[in-house]
Amino acid sequence: MRTNLTLLLLSLVSIVTGKPPDYWAVENPKVREKLPLYKTIPAAKPEEMTPAVKWPKKQDFIDWRRSQGDATSSRYSLLDQINLENISDLETAWIYRSEDGKANVQANPIVVQGVLITPTPGKRMVGLDAATGKELWNFRNEKGGQPAFRGMVHWEGNEKHEGRILFTAGETLYALRPKDGKVLFAKPGPEVRAAGAIFKNVLVLAGFRKDVFGFDIRTGEKLWTFHTIPEEGEFGHDTWDRPENGANCWGGMSLDAHRGIAYVSTGSPKPNFLGHTHHGLNLFANCVIAIDAVKGKRIWHFQEIRHDIWDLDIPCAPNLVTVTRNGRKIDAVAQVTKMGNTLVLDRVTGKPLFPFRLKRAPTSPTPGELTSPYQPAPELPEPFIRQVFTSDEVPDRSPEARAHVLKRTEGMRFGFYETHGPGMPIVMLPGTHGGAEWTGACFDPESELLYVSATELPSIVKITRTDRAVVDETQLTSTPGRKVYETFCIACHGPNRQGVGVAPSIVGLSSRLKDQDVRDLIPKGRGSMPPLPVLDKKQTDELIEYLFDRDREYPKPLTRPERPSYGFGGFPKLFDHEGYPGIKPPWGILAAIDLNSGRLAWKIPYGEYEELTAQGMPLTGTRNFGGPLVTKGGLVFCSGTADNKIRAFDKTSGKELWSARLPYVGSAPPATYGINGRQYIVVPATGNVRVTPTKGDAWVAFALPRK
Asked: pTM here?
């Protein structure tokens, strides 16, 4: 009776106000169950779809002057010297070793006038002879921060200004001359992980912490800021009851240089897994946003997950694509996601080209949380990975593996957007490593197929209630431990330990970890936390005393927060007893998605654990963070797997045609370019600790034998 009365009251409010029923006001499972099981955002009508224009230019698909290939982020090349007929002849052309450290370099390199440009583990930018791999110049960033973390872009210049490579390092925007690495300017800028994109004289950069920015490409002066968490008076501000942080771009962006529209993908609200302090839809988190590149104004947005409490960011650059509808070519945006969905949106209006289905989602057991009543469950395009962990997915390759995973998940819940609560962990699939990751997809305009590599690895999500209230620690007496924290930890975890960006809150850490846990964690790191081997025993002891609130008197009594305080348990993954993913294979896949029909054209296990193959197991695939490249030569190239290989596949069928062993795990998507009539494929191979523990410093280029 109460359930029906509640729904009636909500409906009456809707009639009076003219607004949709405020289902957000009810976090009651019985009320939620009365809602329709599905809702659908209709597809754009044929007459609403935007006809394709003749852009990009042919040369954009030959040059490789931006990480991801060109402004569309297609990673497609018209070069076809290397093709289906001769791929078996491909051989190593050169190997470059930076010899300045070993670290996971995630930038897809660019090539400008015969110079290949890339960052290195030692935080340098180097220019290499693209034909030989010989180092021509190097630039060392003296202001801190990894330069060109996930890429850079080249501007060809004009009659008054030299051509330049543009990237950020830390909070500095650099312009370097490509032939010799000379600094043309270094100006204050945002911290950026992804490659920027250029429209006329505007360089668009998407901030790693938040917001999107426009800069004058000639001078480095900031022109505009778009707030990804809307401020008062801006569209979307009312979708947060208490704006915090997040909605940042760490994966990528693209730009339509014909229309002057930038497309940015954003991450979840922060802190991860905790939404009780920022109720609402939380725009523009988990969105694709179209922004006027000249004015910095929103044109449209499309949100995948609403009020994300699972860390299911949109992780990579949108692909600008052209598809066929009713015999007409249509310009669209294709966005692969951590959930294994592919959003296909009209490039000018943002309307989906396939009906976008939403399904009724569970309520949360966490006191103070208000979840979204609906979450995405699209039918087309088909998801390219599994989207729910079930008991049927428990591995059965050995009795020991099965027993280990069953014990590890005992008492845990799982299901469609299942929610977690204090002492109520869940098994989540896709996990926090995706689905799609920052490496994203590539697009073949000939076949209109989209190619994506992905990992299938469950995560365990658990949160705990903490009694420790947040206080303004900058107003308290400093201690030796606080000083260590300010030197090594504050940039990520913030002045009051509440977390910044993807870094978690560590308020009330003593309720989640013991002293020895922290001692083990500091020198090794975990997840996005880097190792800190530089801390000696004294500094470590002082830091632990501070983190566990034992080194000074705090205000008594501690005022309990207005809303309950929680902490989350990091980003643990579900593995079996031997360290393999705690799920039936495949553990890594490579898939081709037909953007015209929405169907999977093909899908294969991607990567090999050779020791399992030797035991007679079928190919399982492995965790991978490589990302594919597609060429007119009929080939898809991809690396990033645990077996340290780069492979080439028939882009039509997915058949593997060639492979080569790399010195370390491929750490970014390959690039391709032509020099003196010879086509090269080059891939950074610097390792990835998310795949294997070994780091490196190599770049490997392949070409056909010289005639």
From this structure: 0.89
